[in-house]
Specification:
binds zinc ion, globular, SH3 type barrels, three-stranded antiparallel beta sheet, 224 residues
Length: 224
């Protein structure tokens, strides 16, 4: 107390109070959003309509209200959307041609984006030919730019073609010569908690001998 004036003390108390209030407001907002989503989805994933919805997913590039921008998703749909597990065409083909007609624009937008990931496959191509989105929703759907790229090109895969995600552990399949350093990167060395290079699917980063190095994905094997 002796080091700050009463005026500053009052200010800091007030600041703290406002901070606490805003956290409280945020929590109340999330609670009401989750209740509204629960009502809309009946507790089921709004994409597959089969699994329980454990996640609130904010559909990227939305401009509408919270309820219009978020959807209720099961763990599997979420993992496939974020590609933390291998994409399964058979899984999506079972429900996307139906749920793409959802009355919820955010669900339609995600259906459109997922159909585009599989657009080289007949079932998805045919569904896209039929699907009609109004102009605003189509613009929203396209804002992610995913329909212009091949998702597969951006995935990181190890020497066996196994999907790598951030946080994975890998082992080196050959001795690596780290230029300009004395780092000992022998075959079999485990590299934990890897980071994926977002700009290059052939590169990952990880710590070897306590130092961060860039490693080519073709020289590693996933171990967890
Ligand atoms: Zn689902």
């Amino acid at each position: 107390m002796s080091l700050i004036s009463i005026e500053n003390y009052q200010k800091s108390i007030k600041g703290n109070h406002i901070y606490k209030m805003s956290i409280f407001a945020q929590k109340v907002k999330n609670m009401s959003l989750s209740k509204e989503l629960e009502t809309r989805s009946n507790g089921s994933c709004e994409l597959c309509e089969a699994n329980p919805a454990n996640n609130i997913y904010s559909v990227p590039h939305a401009t509408g209200s919270d309820l219009d921008s978020n959807i209720h998703l099961c763990d599997k749909c979420l993992a496939q959307i974020e590609i933390t597990e291998e994409l399964e065409s058979a899984y999506w083909s079972a429900f996307l041609p139906n749920t793409m007609w959802s009355e919820v624009a955010a669900v339609q937008v995600m259906a459109w984006r997922m159909l585009n990931r599989f657009r080289d496959e007949t079932w998805a191509h045919d569904a896209l030919e039929m699907l009609y989105l109004n102009e605003d929703d189509l613009e929203w759907a396209k804002a992610s730019g995913e329909h212009l790229t091949n998702v597969e090109d951006n995935l990181h895969r190890d020497c066996n073609g196994t999907l790598l995600i951030g946080g994975d552990s890998v082992s080196l399949i050959k001795d690596l010569d780290v230029k300009g350093s004395s780092i000992n990167a022998k075959m079999g060395t485990a590299v934990r908690n890897i980071r994926l290079d977002p700009n290059n699917s052939e590169f990952i980063e990880g710590k070897v001998d306590g130092q961060n190095i860039v490693i080519l994905t073709k020289f590693v094997r996933k171990i967890n």
